[in-house]
Amino acid sequence: MKSITINGSQRESVGKVATKALRNAGKVPCVLYGGDNPLHFSAEELSFSKLVYTPNAHTVVIALEDGSTHNAILQDIQFHPVTDKILHIDFYRLFDDKEVTMDIPVKVVGKSPGVMNGGVLRLNKRKLRVKAIPANLPDFIEADISELKIGNKLYVTALQNENYKLLHADNTVVCQVRISRAAMKAAQDAAKAEKEGEA
């Protein structure tokens, strides 16, 4: 999985006043959990754009001024309700032998016979929740639609992998091919015309 480096500065004071001063300076207060003690740090708001405003999943390397680096994943993020500015980010520390849970994007591959015959592909799940050790976290999960005819559904069970565990019920639909509105209307019109012809 691709990794993004965030350069940060450790925070000594974590009160409301210090936090407000950070935000006014264009920085985002962050906390790294998962170690012995939570690590408080801040980083420039702009440095999070590739991590936050993207459909892709990334791990993070937090590089602090003292030369230490910490591997992590983004766990929680708070936005301002009006301005959408990032107010706070929680990270979770990665350990090579410890499983973590992360949302991974779904990538559709293959050509569906149903879509080629006028059906419409509906992606019910753009991301799937995955549990794995960091080395086994995939960049994306492939959903192969080459067998899907009109009316077929692709369930999460078809995407199981021995490297990671999908944290969804077996009956979760990832995507499906539905009859298009135009095709449905044409079928209804044809049936109606047939009835009128018989009358």
Largest sheet: 6 strands, mixed, barrel
CATH H-level name of the largest domain... which superfamily?
A: Ribosomal Protein L25, Chain P
Integer average pLDDT: 91
Number of strands: 13
What's the SSE pattern? EHEEHEEEEHEEEEEEH
Regarding quaternary structure, what we see is single chain
Rounded Rg: 24 Å
| Overall SS class | alpha+beta
Q: Determine the number of helices (DSSP H or I, runs of at least 4 residues).
A: 4
CATH topology title of the largest domain? Ribosomal Protein L25, Chain P
- Overall shape: elongated
The proportion of residues forming helix, as a percent range, comes to: 10-25%
CATH class of the largest domain: Mainly Beta
Separation of the first and last Cα atoms: 65 Å
For the record, the CATH architecture of the largest domain stands as Beta Barrel
Low-confidence stretches: none
Q: Please state how the strands of the largest beta sheet are arranged side by side.
A: 1-3-2-6-5-4
Strand portion = 35-45%
Tell me about this structure.
- This protein is of the alpha+beta class and 199 residues long.
- The protein has two domains: 3-94, Ribosomal Protein L25, Chain P (Beta Barrel), CATH 2.40.240.10; 101-185, Beta Complex (RNA Polymerase Alpha Subunit, Chain A, domain 2), CATH 2.170.120.20.
- Helix content is 18%, strand content 42%.
- The chain is built from four helices and 13 strands.
- The protein has helices spanning 16-24, 49-52, 113-116, 181-198, and strands spanning 3-10, 27-33, 39-44, 59-64, 69-79, 86-93, 100-109, 119-123, 127-132, 141-144, 153-155, 165-166, 173-179.
- Strand 2 (27-33) and strand 3 (39-44) form a beta hairpin.
